[in-house]
Amino acid sequence: MPEIIALGESLVEIMRRKGVPFTKQDVFLGPYPSGAPAIFADAAARLGASTGLISVVGQDDFGLVVKERLRRDGVDTRHVRVARGFPTGVAFVTYERDGSRKFIFHLKHAAAGQLCAADVKAEYFRKAKFLHVMGSTLFIGDGARKACMEAVRIAERAGVKISFDPNLRPELASLKEIRRACEPVLRRAHVVLPSGEEAKILTGEDDPLEACRKLLRLGPGIVALKRGRFGSTVLTEEVGEGTHVAAFKVKEVDPTGAGDSYDAGFVTGLLRGHSLKRAATLANAVGALSVTKFGPMEGCPNLSEVSRFMASRGGL
Ligand code: ATP
Ligand code: MG
Fold it and tell me: Ligand 2 centroid to 195 CA: how many Å?
């Protein structure tokens, strides 16, 4: 029985080389195992946390790619269902020359879109300490949103802490839908891990720190604001101005998956009883290493790699 449970989409990512738009005929690279909750689960398991994923893949080779990778890295995949008659979810991704990222998702009508409340079993939460929910899952469709809310309900009842990464993909929902779907999760979350842009979208504030303070007032005890190559800032009710933790300097090859890897570092740190600063340092290190390789899960470090990396940089 896992201590950390994630739920939501697993998929494969089919990637362009940098700077090649979708509109141009060119090669695609992949399949890379992906899906924000799957990346999170993979990263947490590599860090040594007992982690399970609730998800749905298709009965095809892409499904095998995802499931095999998760299993190899130590994720409990007993609750990753194989849906007959549906292909595994796919996301095409490309980076434009200015660094902005574009997605084309095949999720809602694929296996990932078949996730439903019946996939979430209360007995799976018996030893759980954290449930990790991602905003991207809330917007795949009705079934996936209901699965999230069922998991949140079970977690709340069982005293399992909820971590929430808004992980908003504007391609998947309107502003109004985003706020309405995220609100009940935000209110019940112990820790929320947004990017500055996401905090602003959720609250309507112009300033990311002010937006995070507003998020705190909704209910979570901790907000960990992710700032890409600038690191992260942890805010609590007591330390409203936040504790900034600088990033580790690395050469960024592919930023996809950094946020999910950061979440895994932070939640694993909390699970081990780290201080918030130490958890954020671990999370910054996991996030930094994750961007050094091409592919969403390819840079996820294991515990000894991240410990060596932090020691070599004078971290904790
Ligand atoms: P996404 O949702 O696209 O995966 P995100 O916006 O949720 O990303 P980021 O802020 O991009 O998350 O990255 C998460 C964390 O990873 C950062 O807070 C930082 O600690 C680390 N990180 C990301 N990019 C870099 C980088 N170029 N150099 C060093 N650390 C980085
Ligand atoms: Mg994110």
Answer: 6
Q: Provide the pLDDT confidence category of residue 99 given band limits of 50, 70 and 90.
A: confident
Per-residue pLDDT tens digits for 59-80: 999 999 999 999 999 999 999 9
Q: Using CA positions, which residue lies closest to atom 2 of ligand 1?
A: 259
Give the CATH number, domain containing residue 225.
Answer: 3.40.1190.20
Exposed, middle or buried: residue 303 (CB in 10 Å: 0-12, 13-18, 19+)?
middle
Nearest protein Cα to ligand 1, atom 20:
284
The structural domain count of the chain equals 1
Q: Please give the residue that has the higher pLDDT: either 123 or 100.
A: 123
Strands 11-15 and 89-95: parallel
Distance 296 CA to ligand 1 centre (A): 12
Average pLDDT over every residue of 217-230 = 97
CA distance 149 to 279: 27
Residue 209 CA to residue 203 CA, distance in Å, equals 11
39 Cα to the center of ligand 2, angstroms: 11
| Amino acid of residue 244 | H
For residue 85, the SS3 value is coil
Selection from 240, 270, 236, 296 nearest residue 9 by Cα: 296
Which domain, by its residues, includes 249?
4-312
Q: Is the predicted pLDDT of residue 262 greater than 90, yes or no? A: yes
* Any ligand 1 atom below 6 A from CB of 247: yes
The reply to whether ligand 1 has any atom less than 6 angstroms from the CB of 95 is: no
The pTM of this model reads: 0.97
pLDDT digits (tens, 9 = 90+) for 174-223: 889 999 999 999 999 999 999 999 999 999 999 999 999 999 999 999 99
DSSP string, 273-284: T--HHHHHHHHH
142 CA → ligand 2 middle, Å: 22
